[in-house]
Design a protein that fits this description.
This protein is an all-alpha fold and about 130 residues long. It has one domain. About 70% of the residues lie in helices and about 0% in strands. Helix 2 packs across helix 3. The protein is flat and about 45 Å long.
Length: about 130
Amino acid sequence: MDLGTRLFVGGLALALGLTACAPLVGINVLLYNMSLTNEPVATNFLVIRCATFATLAFFSVNFLRRKRPLSSVAPMLVFCNFTVFFGAVIMIQRAQYDVLPWVVLTMIGGLAFFLYRENRAENSVIFRDSW
């Protein structure tokens, strides 16, 4: 991999990571129309955006490290984990304690646990005959 590619992907990973984490400190990047209000729709959009950018940054860094996902469920697992993390932090920051969003977040956490188990099972099949 040449230097230009590494610099481009590294810069992209840095920009995506910073953009994903910016709402945690009250900075809203890239959205000129949306303020950091406590509206549920804005919160949902912000959580999905943060999780998406963090997932892209995660896999960009893994690309630079030449680490590829070993199973097809790994990207979904990473996205679910980031969704649970950013969802919990942003809803606590905004003092949104309605039951339904927390139930949905718990269900996504359950999906992440299921995907984790599937990922481990698929990895053990891949490496079963490696030694």
